[in-house]
Design goal:
Layout (H helix, E strand, L loop, with lengths): L1 H28 L8 H11 L7 E8 L2 E8 L2 E10 L2 E8 L2 E6 L2 E3 L3 H18 L10 E11 L2 E10 L11 E7 L5 E8 L5 E13 L2 E11 L9 H6 L3 E7 L2 E7 L2
Antiparallel strand pairs: 1-2, 1-14, 2-3, 3-4, 4-5, 5-6, 7-8, 8-9, 9-10, 10-11, 11-12, 12-13
Amino acid sequence: MKTIFVQKNKTTFMRHLYILFVLAFLVSCNPEKKALTAQQIIDKSIKTTGADKVAKATIEFDFRNRKYIATRDNGKFMLERVSVKDTVLINDKLSNNGFERFINEKFIILPDSMSTRYASSVNSVHYFSVLPYGLNDAAVRKKLLKETSINNKNYYKVEISFTEDGGGEDYDDVFVYWIEKEKFTLDYLAYSYHVNGGGLRFREATNVRVINGIRFIDYNNYKPKNASTKLENLDKAFQNSELEKLSEINLENVQVELIN
């Protein structure tokens, strides 16, 4: 009788042990996905879209009748804007050494206020042209907002702000980026700005193309019809047709040369 009881207990124990083993195996094969941080999302987006290649490349494009040229090489950069008015050639250059303007290849001394304004203008166009490159700069602060969906696609929502030290003239501007959850592509962005009375803008990616491994996009540019709309709610306003289209931001004749 004692022997039968011991064997029964042993059989029950082995059955429980087998069940525990199977459960442990299933858990190991299907680990619960850990939530990504804002930093990890931006890192994946930069890698997936080829934006990491921007760090060692020369990129040229035309935008609103001006030519833009950017050369970046491991921290060294030269951002140019070339325009022609009548017979006057204007070449604005922003580099690690600051801003310079040349008119018909002659260096022009400008007041600091004008240099700052021109530098900001040149930098802004180049900045938007290669996003999400630049979102890991030292002055960038990242905050993960609540996930959302736009047009039946799921998105991470990342808020970007800047420190005053190194954040540029418009360091108090705030951006929101919508990163698609499966492909980690930047499909929408919005920002608040304070110059010229301030306001909000929402941009929808269009004309997606990959050139030499780098993803480039154009934008439809919108503003909210209701002045009380908040920055973080612009995606809802977009889906509810509560935005007004202002313009299209199109990069033309894009050329990329990677630097070895």
